[in-house]
Amino acid sequence: MKRVFAVTVIVFVLLMDVNLARGSHDYGDALMKAILFFEGQRSGFLPQDQRMTWRANSGLGDGWTYKADLVGGYYDAGDNVKFGFPMAFTTTMLAWSIVEFGNMMPPNELRNAMVALRWATDYLLKTVSEPNRIFVQVGDPISDHNCWERPEDMDTARTVYAVDAPEPASDVAGETTAALAASSLVFWATDPGYAETLLRNAYITFQYADKYRGAYSDNANVKYGACPYYCDFDGGYLDELLWGAAWLRRATKDDNYLNYLQTNGKTLSADDKIYEFGWENKHAGLNVLVSKEVFEGNVDSLESYKASADSFMCTLIPETPSSSVEYSPGGLLYKPGGSNLQHATSISFLELVYANYLDHTSQSLTCGNVVVSAQTLRQHAKRQLDYILGDNPMGLSYMVGYSNYYPQRIHHRGSSSPSIKDHPQFISCQEGSIYFNSTGPNPNVLVGAIVGGPGKDDVYVDDRSDPGRSEPTTYINAPFVGVLAYFAASPN
């Protein structure tokens, strides 16, 4: 995804007894850090209470070419582009984490999580503020990826990518619908006016998504900005439409969205896609979310969603006859492609949500001849959590700043370059290469960042030029907030 620079490869050799660290995790500390990470990804005017103090204002002119205010939001990973598709998914998952597990968070961390969420929703509202137009990206990825430049200095093109009716953007618009609707549930109690604004915009955005059907990356004016980074590789957008409708149903209780799920869900084929969940593919998360209606006895006609959710859970448990997910020798859930920990965090989150649904209705799963209880799902999720925090063959925490052993050379421009607070002089595009090529640790610790993680063999190389393993992303962290909130309150 990113331009590759020459770099000396440094492999972690950790001289410690891994077993001594097992079972001794401070989930509350990890939760605090997982939320803090989002402050390091902020774009725009930073507030006075900014805790990640090595960061400063950036992207203050975003949107000017359209005479629009697109200041704010998050950089998705280690670059300086604001990709709308993964940012919206990040927002949905951060909101869902709070909806399901916010009552288990300490009050101060619940507040911090809501602040992180609002930083995203304030920006998403800007992206849908003009009639029949959706802003889907800010920043030219080619020029950005050819530079190693901290966000405070970036002088690359801040190209604005917009989709105007009748051009389609069902995937981004559907995910943005989900993000706004899910977030409205978070803010109803503390700021009902803001929650109403979120819900009203979710409804309008869904109308655009459904009326002008198609993938946003099919648009010629967007394709070469979104691809090959966050375009719709599978060519599908119906999952985002159903995902948006499901969250509108959850937020409004409107039966029209149930009818939409019933009618349109029939066109989803029962193929391998139902076993995926991430920024591009919503199938497994959609099935888990909609299954709540069936668990509560509201709508039997949505049973097919629950059946798919059951099937998905059965594939995760190695002891079941339908087990189909690969695991590394050390026990990490593994799916081909880069940034593997995005799968471990998002799927663990779904397991915990589904376990709650099972518990609340005193049910369990039957996977062939194996009965899978809610506790089984929770223990499986906990093994993934503990692996990420250090219970792995390398004894390495894949969360930066957690424990004494974590990645030091993450693929992140701001973290690897000197802070503008310490080095106020401008660092140009090519001048930044020296920091990329440095064999030293990053000078700024991006606390709470979860990197892409090890390969199928459990080996992690601390290599800044390997973004598939060393780059953190917001959509790895967002579902992990919910996972950590659960186990911080219920560690066993």
From TrEMBL:
Keyword Signal found: yes
Keywords: Carbohydrate metabolism, Cellulose degradation, Glycosidase, Hydrolase, Polysaccharide degradation, Signal
UniProt EC number: 3.2.1.4
Top-level taxon of the source organism: Eukaryota
A Pfam cross-reference name: Glyco_hydro_9
Catalytic activity: Endohydrolysis of (1->4)-beta-D-glucosidic linkages in cellulose, lichenin and cereal beta-D-glucans
Leader sequence residues: 1-23
Gene3D superfamilies, sorted: 1.50.10.10
InterPro entries given in the database record: 6-hairpin_glycosidase_sf, 6hp_glycosidase-like_sf, Glyco_hydro_9, Glyco_hydro_9_His_AS
Active site, renumbered: 411
Glycoside hydrolase family domain residues: 27-484
PANTHER family linked to this entry: ENDO-1,4-BETA-GLUCANASE
Family that this chain belongs to: Belongs to the glycosyl hydrolase 9 (cellulase E) family.
Protein name per UniProt: Endoglucanase
Organism, scientific name: Stylosanthes scabra
